[in-house]
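Changelog-adjacent note: as of this version, every example in the card shows the full chain rather than a window. The one below runs 408 residues end to end.
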Amino acid sequence: MSGGTRTGAARADVVVVGAGIVGLGVALAVADRGLSVIVVERGSEASGASIRNFGHLCVTPQTGVALEYGLAAREIWLRLARDAGVWLRESGTFVAARAHDELDVLSEFAEARAAQDARTPVDLLDRAALEACVPVAPGSVIGGAMLPADLQANPRQALGAITAFLAARGVEFRFRTAVGRVAPGVVSTSRGDISAGQVVVAVNHDIDLLFPDAAERHGIVRCGLDMLRVAADLRMPLDAPLLTGWSLLRYGAFAALPATAALRERLHTDRPDLAAIDLNQMYTQLPDGSLIVGDTHYRGATVAPFQAESASEAMLEETVRLFGTGPFRVLERWQGVYASGPDDYLDVEVEPGVHLAAATTGIGMTTGLGLAEAVVARFSGPSAAASSTTPAHAGPIPTITTQEGSAA
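Full-length structure tokens:
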């Protein structure tokens, strides 16, 4: 693997700008086609949105093209768990319903999926069944659901494992290398120009630094969010990501349901303080037992780095209320930033052979590998090595853990 030490002229069939999950997905898709690829990354390693998330690969709550990309990505994640040593759990996702309007949304969703798409089943759970599987406080829920097609990764381990896997396959990485200009056939970097047959720019929210006109034209801004990692003393392990009623307002397949309007009205009326921070109350547990808690959302062309402690306090209070234990000891706090736009994706060819690719609704880990495969297939054709979207399991998926990773 090159750490960015080479200088001067170089050439590759495809140059990828950005070593986050979409950039790595593009490099994988290019390598699968037997083409040469150079990945240029301004940092010494990826440190953006791709490692600052829950590791929740929430395929089932997607809709439209995001669902198709998510299903394609699911197969690629499974392949990477097998071939690249990525820690992955075929865990599914639990959804806790604490009020009848939340259960109404889940019931409507289960009915819709049963009729429309058997690849992403929804198993409704009563109160006893959910409490037997999830360490919520007894009596705090009235039911919920299991979404068995979903997966869980550890983003802090996954990016490094995928990078090492690609480097071993001959992908060249130029780290600590800034890109100043991208034009058809050439990428100008701080270590010299690189000639390219095709260029894929996958720099997420920083797209406005290289293509400001395109970013403005497509309405791309930044979304900042606050997240925590806490020491968790739960009554049982949390073996799958956990969503709540606030999560039902966010994901496309939930948000489109008629029942969601009443839920949104009730939550915003009852808890305007949580609505003001645009809360998605959800959780994942890392291999070391710590719990990721999140998250808030705020948007702008620039996101200030200052995090209001009141937001963290609100998230911790809700965590205590849901699990019935605490207080939780905070191990880490961080701010995530990702590209936000009116559509799920920025996916355009701005000049001949120059492609911009980003997930613009915070679903990059879930769908980014599918997006990457689709972008490369458009200019290079299908690949026999790339996994196709296949039907998800029709019933509950057993938890299978591979390649234990560090929570760092």
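Structural remarks: The two ends are 22 Å apart (CA to CA).
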